[in-house]
Fold this protein.
Amino acid sequence: MNLSGSGVSWTLGPRGASVGIGKRGTYLNAGLPGIGLSMRQALHSGGQARAGSSRPPTRTVKAALTVGVSDDGTITFTDEAGAPVPENMITLAKRQQGDVIMDLIQQKCSEINSQVTALGELHLDTPDPRSRPSSQVASYEVDPPRAAVPKVPGFIDSLFKSKRKRIEEENARAEARHQAAVDEWASEKVRFERTEAQKQALIDKALAGDAEAMEQFFGNVLSDIVWPRETQVSFEVRAGGASLAFDVDLPEVEDMPSKTASVPQRGYRLSVKEMGQTAVQKLYAQHVHSIAFRLIGEAFGMLPTVQEVTLSGYTQRKDKASGHTVDHYLLSVVVTRAAWGQLNFTELRSIDVVEALARFQMRREMSKTGIFKPIESF
């Protein structure tokens, strides 16, 4: 029951759905809990309607719906429980929050397309072979704990021994806590500096050509690379640090994305189309060569004593004759540092990695449409 200057009214029903009864009539209040969507509609007027009046009942709608865009371009409008909302509320949401909905659609479009473009752009982060990895030790940037300000006995406290003693004990406990925090900070600082010193020593050994240090350091470098598709890389430092050989388990062509997206100029829609088989094969060829280019560049960029890199990439296929899974090598390439240094590393975006690797000593049987045939690796 609600009391006000205009009279007495009643609200019946649970939260989210209620009926209001008052001097102005009976109203249905409907809402979707938690999402800000509500509706108020008159069920019965409290007085006589004016003659000839055709004014419809007042309706107020406030909407904040959950909008989802799936990978196939389907756009959904749901309430908090995940149930579809009425079409009229979808229309209202588009009218009032059209820019937000379009931004969401555009984000999904970019997400789908980025999965395609990222596969062929791994080489854009390839380091210049003339650069050297930094061996500078990082400093510990955590400030030491600050001491608490000791409590000072007031005039009244100073008159009572028990109060003075209690304050002294509180100060002593605060000082003990601060000292423990300082000791922990100092221990963390020592551990950090020891780790950084070990990193520096490892890098220095790797740069000097220590084969064991080179393998450990370069393994750390490769572990920081995020591959868009599963890629397994093994390598071996040879000839006392003068050469390096890669063996790369490449992604399969079936792992490639097969859809592209676009946003039509009109309407709240996302158009998702299947890529043709030839387009998928060309994308796969671009991705495979981009992996090889990046790995070769990392070797020359991170390990200055390496003068030659051999890289062989394979996929795993079922042999039709035996039924066993076998390794099919798709490409194998040998690159010297001198030949690698002739590439323009300030214009990586303009480099076609498929053509770039063909400049070097290479074994590859690939059609113009990106279909590979097995080869014998170096």
Observations:
- The radius of gyration is 35 Å.
- The mean pLDDT is 84.
- The chain has three domains: 2-96, 118-126+229-373, 127-208.
- The CA atoms of residues 164 and 341 lie 77 Å apart.
